[in-house]
Amino acid sequence: MATPDSSIGAKLQSLPRTLLYLILLLATSLPLIYGELAGGVSVPNQPLGAAVDFYAALMKIPPGKTVLLETDWTNSTRGENGGEFDAILRILMARGIKFAVFSTADPQAPQVAMDDIATINALRVQKGQKAYVRWTDWVNLGYFPNSEGTLNALAGNLATAFNGKKDVKPGGGLVDVFESPVLKGYTKLTDIPAVILVTASATSTVMIERLSGKVPLDFMVTGVMGPETQVYYSSKQLEGLVIGLKGVYDLETLMKQGLNGQGPDAVPSQKYAGLDVPPVNDNLGTGKGSAYYPTLHFALALLILAVIVGNVGMLLTRKRTAQ
Amino acid sequence: MSVETYRFIKLTVGVLATLGLYSALYRENKFYRFFEHVFLGLAVGYAVVALWTETLYDLWWTKMMGSTAAVGQVATPGYWGWIVLLPIGLLGYFVFSSKNNWVSRIPIGIILGLWSGQQLQVWFTRYGPQMVKQMVPLLPTTSELFHPVTTGMTPAQVATVDSTVYVSQAITNIIVTVTFISVLSYFLFSFDLKNRFLKNATTLGRWLLMIGFGAIFGSTVMMRFTLLIDRMYFVWIEWLMKAILHK
Q: Does the domain spanning A45-285 belong to CATH 3.90.1640?
């Protein structure tokens, strides 16, 4: 019977799985707790061009206009999409831009979005700011079961695509959404200054196929979708793009600093030199990006360490076998 | 029940569900199974209700039935033509009939026909701009290495600078073009090649694809970590520190 290999190389390659999970748990918990107790930890950051374009595009939308906000994510991707959605809500609310929320990916998505809107609204009220009122400032168009059909209809006629959809009017029950101040007077897709998509699914591709070139598109996607979505930004099919946690942190940095501002943390941008792209001072505190991004570095450091340990173990084992 | 109590119960159930699902990392257990089934049941139950409230009622029933006038609302006429969709949709359930399951192909055929009809336009909308952007100049039009800073320049000067191909841009364009051609050749020439140039091009294409897959994998790992961090934030910060310790 063969005796088990008890060399250091073999041990390094077969660390107990439970131990690795425990270390990962600590690496992802302790920095979070420390960050919360310390009131936030900042990591030096240079926002990517795609996120800068996204922010600049939002900042040029006139207050009072309405954007379409397609929300195709649920709590399963809250880590990335939640931070993205929080950031977009904070920007829209701070700038007084109205929005109409809808989903073509998941029936749960509109409810998740409404929960998030309620959270941000509560924070605004807590900080003495005006609450964003449903019906007056935003409407929920709900879930549409077929992304291709819905977005195709939207490309053809905005009024037809959302025909029959009702939302809650304070004191008035369910009323046609086109009666609301949010969508009143909007009939064509070209009336809308931008369509923003927060997604964890392939609806990004469907939107490109159906709406690209007809209206400015701005996407917020998960890290997994980043490389495949980047091509649409590179070919100018997207106005701006926010990818995963790094994108959220970029956006939160821009919300804090604006573009071409003053100070050591200023974000310079040659592309927007001379244009006014100010910060969003909503005083709502740090977002999820700022809370999670430093912790991600610890998790990645652990991953790199594990790869090194595994490879050192493999080399030691090979050397021992050769001897 | 106060809002605070309800919120605390909701968060606590969320924490239990999180722990239950992560307990599978230790080993398969009943705690994990229970929450897995709760999760599936909730998702299916929610989808069934949403099917009526968000889809059939709004997009089909009210359009077919119309509405009567109410306070602050005008009456809308009903269009009975929408009823045609019901028997067509119900044909789909013939898939469960061993004798007449061919009938289910009728609604599937209609959907496929609608989908196929859109594909020509859809394909070009998706790939057309990418093909156009692929046509990039490979030779620099100046000996200067980098795109200069345009701050303080007049619009005409900025336009001139933007239309100039600097050496660094030309190098980038060459990398893009070589990647495009070699990856394309990898898929086109997937048979045994005798020509050495084509063979090297396909090998380069395979390597570049691997780099691309590596970038995707790296992004995937980062995303999975972020999802874990979010769960830890939920457990430690939202539940423990804010809901229990009121920090």
A: no
